[in-house]
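Predicting holo structure, potassium ion bound.
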Amino acid sequence: MFARFDKLNPPQFLAVVFGLAILVGSVLLWLPIASTEPVRYIDALFTATSATTVTGLVVVDTGTVFTRFGQVVIMALIKLGGLGLMSFAVLIVLALGKRLGLRERLLIQQSFNQPSLGGIIRLVKVLLIFSFSMELFATFILALRWVPEYGLAEGLFQSLFHAISAFNNAGFSLWSDSLTRYIGDPVVNLIITILFITGGLGFTVVYDLVKTKHMKRLALHSKIMLVGTLAINVVAMLMFFLLERGNPATLGALTWGEQFWATYFQAVTPRTAGFNTLDFGAMEPATITFMLLLMFIGAGSASTGGGIKVTTFVVIVLAVVTYLRGARESVAFSRAIKADIVIRALAIVVISLSVVFVSIFVLSMVETAPYLTIVFEAFSAFGTVGLSMGITDSLTDTGKMVLMWLMFLGRLGPVSIAFALAKASHKNVRYPKEDVFTG
Amino acid sequence: MFARFDKLNPPQFLAVVFGLAILVGSVLLWLPIASTEPVRYIDALFTATSATTVTGLVVVDTGTVFTRFGQVVIMALIKLGGLGLMSFAVLIVLALGKRLGLRERLLIQQSFNQPSLGGIIRLVKVLLIFSFSMELFATFILALRWVPEYGLAEGLFQSLFHAISAFNNAGFSLWSDSLTRYIGDPVVNLIITILFITGGLGFTVVYDLVKTKHMKRLALHSKIMLVGTLAINVVAMLMFFLLERGNPATLGALTWGEQFWATYFQAVTPRTAGFNTLDFGAMEPATITFMLLLMFIGAGSASTGGGIKVTTFVVIVLAVVTYLRGARESVAFSRAIKADIVIRALAIVVISLSVVFVSIFVLSMVETAPYLTIVFEAFSAFGTVGLSMGITDSLTDTGKMVLMWLMFLGRLGPVSIAFALAKASHKNVRYPKEDVFTG
Ligand SMILES: [K+]
Ligand SMILES: [K+]
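Done. Tokens:
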């Protein structure tokens, strides 16, 4: 059994583990004790897939249809999916290191500051401690807010569930309208977003930040992630505010304070948290179009977020600017980006777009919902975002299967692609070069 | 004056020439003698842009609103646009030759079989003779069909107008429903499609075909174009038939013979002819989704067609397959494709998608038409296709300006990008390599 597993390469291994978790989870969610009303198997499977891939799209209301048992199963799948993903990402980066030349291996080891096997085990330990402490700390703060409101048992569970869901970028909520009721609540807004932004940066970045005192000494990957995330979030806030401030169904009807929090929340959630405090079905088509880009970009490598990843996006922007200028090499923070990395990033975009395109094609055959809602749903599933314009539960079974496929691929895809592409040849270089993880 | 023009690089020069042609054309079309009813300047400008960029999107009915004078202006702009484009493409390839190393220059000269300046002049001569003979021959055949139907003067003009429009992939028709009335007519179907497929292959391919006796000795570029065009057209026919055969508004209501011709015609027109014999507004969303891909792919380099080009698409498919397999180099017809070419192709896709995305974003702000019709319109304009789901004439002025911008960029874009990217460095190679024009 273990011997056969040994023959799988890392992405195949991850696919098998995730597939098994989804299967076991779907059976548990299908049990009569998991729900207050009969749930079809495809809906249990969809829920298990959405939880394990930390997406957050739902076909059955988490808070009312699933019992506390069902909710605990969902929470466990989220924790497993998020943790498995992060530790797997760490392992895959280390595995990549073994396939690469001395220089690349040294670069990777430098970015982790872990040269030995003992170091790796310690790294995973730190990862475990880090994620549990973040979740527990957040649970405590949220409980201060929710225990007075919902009572001790209920309030504590609400806090724990949302803390785990947020840190792992899962987007599951116990309320059918997500966090809409806390649209102007600073505590909920701040804690939830801090959790999913931290989880979305990627463990390697957080680790690098903690280890490295000086900003200048951060790895190129960390610098790109931090500056890229900040820049994208600021642009997203501006765009969202300008596009929606006149919409009476969203920002238009709110107070100034609510507008601020709602703008901030909706700007940071598409990459790839999936919570919402406004109704996405009521937003302007232009806002939704812009959100497609945000959902496609996603979060960081080795994180709980999905999408093509911020670094991939930054590398592509730099590469395209470089070529339009006729320059020889893309440069970021005084480091040249290798041609290999650029090709890998461009390939990830093309492959990702192809997968989404084929899915939209199939969805447009079987679904009758407006085209934009279908497009949004497909990008949301592939980016494991979990936002929806409200059509998920009325999809056909074929449509649900397409979304499950998208969530699964979206979760495995970029990491697997990065692994596959890691075999690419390495050419002679003129500038000092440094790797950027674009998985 | 000429000295200043000399300082422009070829894409800038093309932009200035096209811009001037559009301006002059728009003024001519705005004159009272050009139309039977007053035409707004923006509509005259739109028509001139659509004709010069050989797109075919119309905001004013060509056959009824424009007089014979106006129609001749449109025909002249199409001829100028198409010819200017093809000869410019030949010149740019030769100009690229001067910027490249000895090996690349030899490859380009080999594909033209023209090593000297005298050869280049002869090449442009052949191009002129070839395009005029194709158009005159087609006019003659179409006249046999249309002179009996419309009388001598009218029938001859119809024939000449549609021959020029088809060979230059312009998609302009004197009938408001394009060629819908000839849906089952073998002569019209065959002549029009032969014209736009030949025009869309690109002059270099046709020239190579005429010069080279043996298929195996064709340039790599020609082989990819011929096999790629055939494969895409066959797949498009199958897909179109399967998706639309049950649609009573399109194939469903037709006889077998009409179904055959309609399937063939609609499968080949999206890349980038722009004529239609069926109503695109009545097609299934899945068909339209598939058409988006066909319109984005487009026709050949140095042709009258638009899009990212068939070779770019083939290079990308090969590159992605190569990387997924972990192989070192993409290979087509026993020739390795250079990393430079791959990066260039991927960059063209990313840049093109970005342009279309921004346009869809702006259109979704100002237009109220269904989302899919807007997306279709944007891809059609950027690919200089000219197909529409029927919303062009009801667009806002902002929307029309976005489409003009798209047509102009779509026409100049890939060629200019290819030129910009031609400065990229050349690395040492292991396999015999050969260039593929992905502009
Ligand atoms: K999510
Ligand atoms: K056209």
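The pocket of potassium ion (ligand 1) is lined by residues A 54-56, 169-171, 272-274, 384-386 (CB under 6 Å).
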